[in-house]
Design brief:
With 174 residues, this protein is α+β, with helices and mostly antiparallel strands. The chain contains five helices and eight strands.
Length: 174
């Protein structure tokens, strides 16, 4: 359907659209599609060393760092190994757009404080159920992201002949 007039948005909404679009998951969405997420975009404050979520927790939300630094870590025997360090604008917890998923890593705030945008899983799934075009774009972006992770895993494994630094998988996508 052809629209004669394009909807106009407040500058604060446009700023949020630009912010969201910096992430692969949202980069192909139009302003009209991004608008669907506005009512469900909640800000949450975290303090240093506060855990956002633990590995094996249910994947109940998607997170985007407004400001601060978050470390993604996996448990390896008695210690945690760092997968990635994410800063302003980066997204994590993207498996929340899939049903019945659990976290594969622990997310920990490592800056003095952090402000995160949180989109609850229930709202993500509802948007995707109501808006098939948005679902297709999100699932395509997630598939590309996961393909990149697998390619980086194989590349790291081949380069190091079985002994490699696991953070190479995530850091090549940052």
């Amino acid at each position: 359907m052809f629209k004669l007039f394009k909807k106009s948005y407040a500058e604060k909404d446009l700023a949020i659209f630009r912010f969201l679009s910096r992430n692969k998951l949202f980069e192909s969405l139009t302003d009209e599609e991004l608008e669907e997420f506005l009512p469900y975009l909640h800000k949450r404050q975290y303090k240093e060393n506060e855990v956002v979520f633990f590995a094996n927790d249910p994947s109940n939300a998607l997170y985007i760092i407004k400001n601060g630094i978050v470390s993604l870590n996996i448990d390896v025997k008695e210690h945690m190994e760092k997968l990635a360090v994410l800063r302003n604008g980066k997204l994590f917890g993207d498996n929340a757009i899939l049903e019945n998923t659990k976290r594969v890593y622990t997310a920990l705030v490592i800056s003095e404080s952090a402000e995160l945008y949180v989109i609850p899983k229930i709202n993500l799934l509802q948007i995707m159920e109501d808006e098939v075009q948005i679902k297709a774009k999100l699932m395509g972006a997630l598939a590309e992201e996961y393909s990149d992770y697998v390619q980086n895993l194989f590349k790291a494994y081949q380069t190091e002949y079985g002994f490699f630094d696991i953070n190479m998988i995530y850091n090549n996508n940052s």
